[in-house]
User: Fold these one by one.
Assistant:
Number 1:
Amino acid sequence: KGRPFVVHRLDRETSGLLLFARSAAVRDILQANWDTVTKTYLAIVEGKLPQPAGKVENFLIYGKDMRCRLVRNDKGSRRAVTHYRAVATHGKSTLVEVVLETGRKHQIRVHLAGLGCPVIGDPVYGTASDPAGRLGLHAHRLALDHPTTGERLELESPLPTALRRVME
């Protein structure tokens, strides 16, 4: 009944889970507690990660060209923290599980490219390969407390066929 209320968004090229609330009040509760939500993505990257698992922590700033850049803790920059783990490799690609501690625009794409492993299908941050015909980034799982019952919810979206095929 009524219109849905957007709780969060994804970059246009990213597939996966979106969360909507059925009322503005519930949306506000979810957004106020968004830092307690575990946000897990799957990314397919070019190459192999320098370490099978790790953490990237730095500061990001956005230019007038709408590109995100790594910087020192400068005026206007925002702290960004990404945890990653290699899940599988196939040929020249690696499937990476990414858990966000912070959620900045293009954070995953910039951090993985900074590790020398850009997300497939992402010419903005350094890849020429596009084996899936799309960006290789998928919002896979959200784990959160229900806003009224407090019950822990684990919501999951399977990897889309086009991305799954790259890893087969």
Number 2:
Amino acid sequence: MVALVTGAYKGLGLALCYQLAMNGYKVVLTARTQENADEATQLLVLKGANEIFPKELDVTNESQLTEMAKWAKQTFGKLDLIINNAGINPKDYPDKSKMAKAFYLNELDPQELFQVIHINSIAPLLVTKHFRSLLNLAINQL
């Protein structure tokens, strides 16, 4: 079984990768940087998780999604599970003035808001668009 988890270098995504790996999945752990993906993988390996595949992935970048889907097909032949965990919350921005531009109506900056919408709402659809055929391969193997 193979799972792809986006936004998996910390928090819920990291915990999901751990649980999946401990339950027999090969896990593609993605993060915006390869460094974050590698660090998260090292942590999971230290906790006894195996078969973790760290990959850099910006879920808003369709060329990266295309390349990742090709890699996954060549490496695994299919995907059994996709967890679209990547997301941002403006309230967590260290720069509160930037947060206000995406969160408060009086200070709203359309570009900041679009970034939040793009990552939280559009990107999961893009991920599904690029990996759906790999899910279909898994279904056809049942």
Number 3:
Amino acid sequence: DKSWDWKEYYDEIEDRPSRALVGAVEKYSKDKKYALDIGAGSLRDTKYLLDKGFTVVAIDPSPVSVQIAQDLKNPLLTMFPGFAGAYEFPGDYFSLINAQGILFHFPKIRFDYVIEKIKSSLQLGGIFVGNFIGEKDTWNYPGTTKTITTSEDLKLIFKDFDIVFMREFESD
């Protein structure tokens, strides 16, 4: 949405990494080597991963995100200033892949493509952290191009994974 002030939003959430990511890193991450942050936005999760010792590739097409990455001047950070579908995912490479608030925005064909790339790029024993939207979400409106998933869909998508934590919630 062109009217959204991404800089203001990024400033507001700057020092608050995703709770799901923090939990995954603290509870399950053994190999803190290479991480991918898809839809990096304000780079709040990227900064957290860097602080935890990961070498990070951050993906986001926003010029604001690219500028934040440049300002960090961190040699352990590589910024890919494009869309996730255009990124050349290396096979069997990342020990952690984070995708907060991004994958459901993709139309189904792009969603499926990126999910397959994520799965092939994650090392055996690696961790995927992400979120999705379901059938009752307010973003599931007539004509939406977003990808809506059920918990059953996700279990099928990640059938080759050991799902250590999955939470589904609804609220008014």
Number 4:
Amino acid sequence: AAGLEPSDAFHKIFPRCEYVQLKRGEPLPFADQSFDLAFSNAVLEHVGSRARQQAFLLELVRVGKRAFITTPNRWHPIEFHTATALIHYLPTTTYRRIYRALGFDFFSKEENLNLLDDSALWSLLPADVRSRTEIDAHRFLGIRSNLLLTLRDAPQR
């Protein structure tokens, strides 16, 4: 397992599992295709700009032979981090200003919350990765709530 936090709390719950503390914005400290599966659950929207999101996504693709990545769908009517409805449908600068006014200062900043839709997620992938990628969705109350990116096996090098 890997994360930004120190390992103490993790090891209390999972004492036999190896944990690597990561540094925000830096490459993952693993060799190419170190893992059969790279899994990232609702992290991509928290790494910053589209360029940083792309770098993070490509790191997952680099270290995993396959990958499964989830992120909330920007077009679900409820924004799950703030539990607000429809505000995030507004232009980005407008909804960020409203979030600040509502006391969601942390989530008003791009480096802490940068929501994606299918098109934005797809645009992060280079052509050679797109050919082995599918984007699907989990539904909540019949509406696509979370995007699910599945990356099939990497070609052998």
